[in-house]
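ok so I'm stuck.
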Amino acid sequence: SVVRMLAERGVRCVVNYSSSKDDAEAVADAAGNGAVAVQADIVEDAACRRLAAAAVDAFGRIDFLVNNAGRTKFANHEDLDALDAEDFLDIYRLNTIAAFQMVRACAPAMREQDASAVVNVASVAGVFGMGSSVAYAASKGALITMTKSLARVLAPKIRVNAVAPGYVGTGWFEKRLGAEGFERLNQSIAARVPMGFATGPDEIAGPIVHLLDPM
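replied:
not stuck anymore, here's the structure
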């Protein structure tokens, strides 16, 4: 949704993927406007730098960065034995460190533009200590704090913000639950929230695009 909305505004996008090549290429093709899919495992700093270089090679500039890669391990918060150190490190490497590495890799090119911006996709889990696991919540809390730090040091050339969604009904859930299970989940979520609907990708893409807009 973010790529589509940006493309509609004339922004040319690089869609990163680690292993889901077909999905990434489908997103790029659907967006049009010259969008390209580029493979990079952004846990590795060198891959982040190659991804930034690919964007400059493709379009000659970098204006915007959206850090939305993430992973988790589902574990009951009350079960302190459900997670070990490697679980924390594995989640933290992608959810927090990779976002930092991507900002660092893109910053030189972004500083050359007049209205560059970063949006990090955090989570309500990082605000309230809830969600799929303690490790996930901790990683998103760290991402929120890191966003504040980077916003301070990169201003005024690069604006850095974060969004912190709750449940978002993406294809990730549909693939795992099937169409009927996904619909039941959305109905269950809708029954529990004041607005009476389950948030979808467009409801989160809108705020992200708004935060990227210099106006």
